[in-house]
Amino acid sequence: MLRTNKQKQKSERVAQTIPVSQVHHHLPMNTASKKILIAEDNPGLARVLTFKIKSGGYLPLTCGDGREAWSVFEANPDIQAIISDQEMPYLTGIELFHRVRQVNQSIILFLVTGRQLELSQSSISDELNISQIFGKPFSPGALLSTLDAALACERASSQPISAPVDLSHVSLTDRRGFNEVRE
């Protein structure tokens, strides 16, 4: 399942959870300009994630700890998504996400953890509106597919679905054939 976010106003946030398989992948998207922040203290996993995100056409910004990730986030307000390990030096993934949510309510957040069950059952993922929690071990390909889907949903939700329609001139008839009286 994928949680998508949309912030209409500062105090109003709309979230929707949908299966990744139901996302329409035909939406055109220029991924090359999309910055993805990766916060991972394991150098091997950081290299794998960086390679996978780059192979998906995105621009990965990779950090080795939570404090560095926060600095990179502050310096790059156009980051589209954050992929963070939970257990890192200086700031955990959750602590990083708390800071991020104070600044940006709609950014896509993915958490990577060895304690998936604990976090998926807690209210913290709802409170921070984490789009997806990946339990270790996980498939970097699945993470990339989920990222593609989340960004496609974000793009689709930012497009106006339709313009307001004025129906004041339309007469309504009930199923017995009587016109509705409007007051």
Automatic annotation (TrEMBL):
Q: Which Pfam families match?
A: Response_reg
Q: Phosphoprotein as a keyword?
A: yes
Q: Which residues carry this modification: 4-aspartylphosphate?
A: D85
> Where would I find the Response regulatory domain in this sequence?
35-151
What are its GO biological-process terms? phosphorelay signal transduction system
Q: Which UniProt keywords apply?
A: Phosphoprotein, Two-component regulatory system
State what protein this is by name: Response regulatory domain-containing protein
**Annotated source species:** Stieleria varia
